[in-house]
Design goal:
This protein starts with 6 loop residues before the first strand and ends with a helix. By secondary structure, the protein is α/β, with parallel strands linked by helices. It has one domain: TIM Barrel. Helix 1 links the parallel strand 1 and strand 2. It is 32% helix and 20% strand. Strands 1-2-3-4-5-6-7-8 form an eight-stranded parallel barrel. The longest helix is centred in the last third of the chain and has 13 residues. It has eight helices and eight strands. Bound molecules: D-xylitol-5-phosphate and zinc ion.
Amino acid sequence: MTEKNILVSASILGCDLANIESEIKRIEKAGADFVHFDVMDGVFVDNISFGLPVLKSAKTKTNLPFDVHLMITEPEKYIAEFAKAGADIITFHSEAAKDIKKCIDICRKNGCKVGISVKPNTPASEVFPFLGEVDMVLVMTVEPGFGGQGFLPFTLEKIEQIRKRADKLSLDIDIQVDGGITDETCKDVKKSGANILVAGTYLFKADNMKKAVELLK
Ligand code: DX5
Ligand code: ZN
């Protein structure tokens, strides 16, 4: 199995959103590697979060790269705008895209890295045909829509399947996990082959965020 550095992407869905600038500074100081920006449209998932104007503004407050997780239907309609608003990596859901190839192309054309995501019950085989074309696969470890849920252990097998397949094809992709990640649950996901850990509640509820980031790594 490929050994990769563990990176942490802090989900600001779990922060004090009225003080987003200081919360992002806190993430920075704690040593997180990305700002994870969860976009929800109330259709693909049963929740509405934030979108383009917030990204545009938040982007001016930090040099950390923005890892944008689109939980929206027909992502092909909005990818270019999220790229222009400051996304560095754009992840869309395989279940939501009408045309996965087209989504990948729009990300690339707009200078973004590309991630493809699968919900807990979507099989690994859905992303296999695209492993050579994306930078990252995001394996949801909870049902998308809300922070603060419990990690679903049955997703570990899928992480392993994707890492094995990528290794077999000599593809150096990132595998990101998102949902219920803590200093405990991170152990198994890392063992299974994930190397980018999204964390919201665990980081923002920690007494010492820097220590929490270190424990995840
Ligand atoms: C859930 C989001 C996650 C969420 C993670 O749909 O995609 O990024 O913020 O939150 P925690 O770490 O609290 O599970
Ligand atoms: Zn997310």
